[in-house]
Design brief:
By secondary structure, this protein is an alpha+beta fold. It has helices spanning 4-15, 26-32, 67-83, 110-124, 127-134, 141-151, 155-164, 206-212, 230-233; strands at 36-40, 47-51, 56-61, 170-176, 179-185, 226-229, 244-252, 257-263. The protein has a 5-stranded antiparallel β-sheet with strand order 5-4-8-7-6, with helices on both faces. Helix 1 packs across helix 4 and helix 3 crosses helix 4 (110-124). The radius of gyration is 19 Å and the shape is globular.
């Protein structure tokens, strides 16, 4: 069932006559909404929105390295513009952009941050078009790369969007400063993660390999899907077989985070 945030994003696109805004600069789109878009260095903050008496100002940190992330930050702030005018909001940081349904309790104003993320995902990766591109295709890092390039979005945002539609059973593990912060899995993936929350990832996991290599990209292209044992991350029951799984990690060196995607073919 579509969330209110998704409906609001769909309505905004329809109101302005767009099926998608992939090839449109966010500065132009924000201007078309009657707000002001500014890129400037913002200490300890990736984005923020300032509501004035006549106009709102959306600020995006100019120090963000990748255009795709800037686009998501801007779309997130547009979500606040549309849905949260009457709410006092904190400045947005990297962690705010990496929450999924059920995990919003981790953050102050988590409900509003989740709504802004859902809004941004629908605005940048409209459901109908995204499903047309992703449905029926084998899950792999190359598929995520294709979708990321198709919609001009970051790998991380693309993975979260893919997860929302449950197109293939996967487990997402979000790691920050070397510790597992939270995890969530598809209902169809019949496994149970070991007790790693607030602890380091398993020593023989791909995530740990990235941490030991200071968050640089260890693997490229097809090699990004590394084989691991099921027991690396998941607790085995007495009747379980320690089968082969895959782990694909997206590190972000600037923020010392890793999004680990684990699945079985």
């Amino acid at each position: 069932m579509k969330t209110n945030a998704c409906i609001q994003a769909q309505n905004l696109l329809a109101e302005h006559g767009f099926e998608e805004i992939t090839d449109l600069g966010m500065d132009l789109f924000v201007s078309g909404l009657g707000a002001m878009y500014v890129e400037e260095e913002i200490p300890n903050c990736d984005g923020k929105i300032i509501f004035g008496s006549k106009i709102a100002v959306i600020k995006v940190n100019s120090k963000i390295q990748f255009l795709e992330r800037k686009r998501f930050v801007a779309a997130h702030e547009i979500g606040h513009l549309v849905m949260h005018r009457s709410i006092q909001l904190p400045d947005d940081t990297f962690t705010n952009f990496n929450i999924i349904s059920g995990m919003e309790r981790e953050l102050k104003n988590g409900k509003q941050e989740l709504e802004a993320n859902e809004f941004a995902s629908e605005l940048l990766m409209p459901e109908d078009i995204f499903l047309k591109e992703a449905k029926g295709k084998r899950f792999s890092p190359l598929l995520i790369k294709h979708l990321s390039e198709r919609f001009n979005t970051s790998l991380t945002a693309t993975v979260f969007r893919y997860f929302q539609f449950d197109l293939h059973p996967v487990c997402l593990v979000f790691i920050e400063n070397g510790k597992v912060k939270y995890w969530k899995k598809s209902d169809e993936l019949k496994v149970w993660l070991g007790d790693f929350t607030k602890l380091s990832p398993p020593v023989n996991s791909v995530a740990m390999e990235y941490i030991e290599n200071n968050y640089v990209f260890v693997y490229t292209l097809e090699e990004k899907a590394q084989t691991i044992n099921k027991s690396t991350w998941f607790t085995l029951n007495e009747d379980d077989t320690d089968t082969i799984f895959y782990e694909y990690c997206i590190p972000t060196r600037r923020y010392k985070t890793i999004l680990s995607i684990i699945w079985e073919d």
